[in-house]
Every structure is written in C-alpha cells, then in structure tokens.
Design a protein that fits this description.
By secondary structure, the chain is an all-alpha fold. It has 4 helices and no strands. The longest helix has 28 residues. The protein starts with a helix and ends in an 8-residue tail after the last helix. Keywords: Membrane, Transmembrane, Transmembrane helix.
Length: 124
C-alpha cells in the first residue's frame, strides 16, 4: 500500500472517530446544531474515504483518480467540518469561506469518484 493510501486510510479512521466525538459533544451542549451537522458530515464521509482507499488497493478503479477523489473528500471534510465545529465551540470561523470551499471540494470529490469508475485501469 502506498503512503498516500495509508494517510487517507488513517484520515478516514480519524474522521469517524471525530464524528462520534462531535456527536457526543453536541448531544450534551445547547445550541450546537452546526456541530451536529459537522458530526454527520464526518460520519458520512469517513466510510466513503475508506471505501475509496479499498477500491484503489484492489485495483478496481483508476488509482490516481480514486486517490484524488478521496483526497478531495478529506480536504473538504477538514474545511467544512472544521469551520462548523470551530464556530460551534469557539464562536469563530476557521477562515472566511472555509465551509463553502470545503463543501465545493466535497462535491468535487464525489464527482471524481463517479468519474473514476469509468477510467480504464491497466489490465482491466
């Protein structure tokens, strides 16, 4: 397994962990709707990232396109969820337009995952 795949795999696990933690925190705090949203996005995208890494490792999809899709999801989750969580917990933004930028990257990641399904792989 390539180092990029290991990094994405580790990030997928970390995203799942943070999603559970954010869900628990949101359940015990008032006024944390944006933290609940961040938790949901973390929990939705963690298995998607793990699956994309598995598809890359199995050779079922074009490796570079699939890695790029997983990376876009990872960076998108960092920006989108990081901004929402920071706003909920500290009342400040990550940086201007962090959440929308993350959202666009998430959409791009899903689009790339769809495209990767149709790019021929070596020997297949």
């Amino acid at each position: 397994m390539k180092p990029a795949d290991r990094l994405l795999l580790a990030f997928g696990g970390l995203a799942g962990l943070l999603g559970v933690a954010a869900s628990a925190a949101a359940a015990h705090m008032a006024g944390t709707e944006s933290l609940k949203t961040a938790a949901q996005f973390l929990l939705f995208h963690a298995p998607a990232i793990l699956a994309l890494v598995a598809l890359t490792a199995s050779g079922a999809t074009h490796p570079m396109a699939t890695r790029l899709a997983a990376a876009a999801l990872a960076v998108g989750v960092i920006l989108f969820c990081g901004d929402l969580a920071l706003r909920a917990l500290q009342g400040t933004a990550l940086f201007p337009m962090a959440a929308p930028t993350g959202g666009v990257l998430l959409m791009a990641g899903w689009g790339l995952a769809a495209v990767a399904a149709f790019i021929p792989t070596k020997g297949r």
